[in-house]
Write a structure and sequence with these properties.
Rossmann fold; four-stranded antiparallel sheet; binds adenosine-5'-triphosphate; six-stranded mixed sheet; binds magnesium ion; alpha/beta
Length: 247
């Protein structure tokens, strides 16, 4: 059976102050896939994510999440959608004055009326999912870069999102830490059935995790499909990006 689309974008055109940054983008993201957004710096990747989560409004087009058009949606209804998605922004920071557990508890305190003990149990469960049980009482300043990423990930999944948006997960991480993070991402897909929408530049990571990719070149969708399909499409910029022009 074909998996349902959790996100559908049609003819999205968007920009800032009259300058077009995304041009006529259409795409579909299926439940439980890892969808990777690629493209050179300034290509519009982060801008695309911000439109999907309703932080920015497009000039034209439609965006539907969980089968519902989000543009012009009532705020209450949109909040219902936001509760079902998690996000980790580029450079998304932890609050340094708060312990790890408090950072992870923030969304639970904001969006639920759960008792402290329940929240504490959820925090522990999420920390164990990212293999950081021992960091519960630590401060962000006591963590390595890879540990901070994992705590941010635990915070982003605190509310059990169905879709997780992740902008540059491996930025600033060494190859081993980055490959551990990929394992974790694959684990979240498998164990929790999450749909992941990930922006990354890391070739190794893309090859390990991506079910499908989209390649944005100056705001245009020049390819969308699997890596195998990308390879036989012989698009110059994509061949160069993956190093296939040297094969
Ligand atoms: N808030 C903003 N106001 C004006 N222009 C913006 C804003 N945010 C992004 N832009 C512009 O939109 C274009 C796309 O930016 P975006 O951040 O989406 O790129 P990106 O593909 O995520 O790049 P990177 O790989 O460097 O993160 C850039 O030219 C950028 O200058
Ligand atoms: Mg970006």
């Amino acid at each position: 059976m074909e998996k349902e689309n959790v996100i559908e974008i049609k003819n999205l055109t968007a920009g800032f102050d009259g300058r077009t940054v995304l041009e006529n983008i259409s795409l579909e993201i299926k439940r439980n896939e890892i969808f990777v957004i690629l493209g050179s710096s300034g290509g519009g990747k982060t801008t695309l994510l911000k439109h999907i989560i309703g932080l920015l409004k497009p000039e034209k087009g439609s965006i539907s999440v969980f089968g519902k058009e989000i543009l012009n949606m009532e705020i209450d209804e949109f909040e219902g959608i936001l509760k079902r998605i998690g996000m980790l922004f580029q450079g998304g920071a932890l609050l340094n004055s708060m312990a790890v557990w408090e950072n992870i508890a923030i969304p639970l305190e904001q969006h639920t009326q759960l008792e402290n003990e329940v929240i504490s149990n959820i925090v522990k469960q999420k920390l164990s999912l990212v293999n950081l049980e021992d960091a519960y009482y630590m401060l962000p300043s006591e963590l390595s870069g890879g540990m901070k990423k994992r705590v941010s990930l635990a915070r982003a999944i605190a509310m059990d999102p169905e879709i997780l948006f992740f902008d540059e997960p491996s930025a600033g991480l060494d190859p081993i830490t980055s490959s551990d993070l990929d394992e974790l991402i694959l684990d979240l897909k498998k164990k929790l059935g999450i749909t992941l929408v990930i922006v990354t530049h890391e070739l190794e990571s893309i090859k390990r995790i991506a079910d499908r990719i989209i390649y944005l070149q100056k705001g245009k969708n020049i390819f969308c499909g699997t890596i195998e399909e990308a390879k036989i499409s012989h698009i110059e910029e994509i061949d160069r990006f993956f190093g296939w022009d040297k094969d």
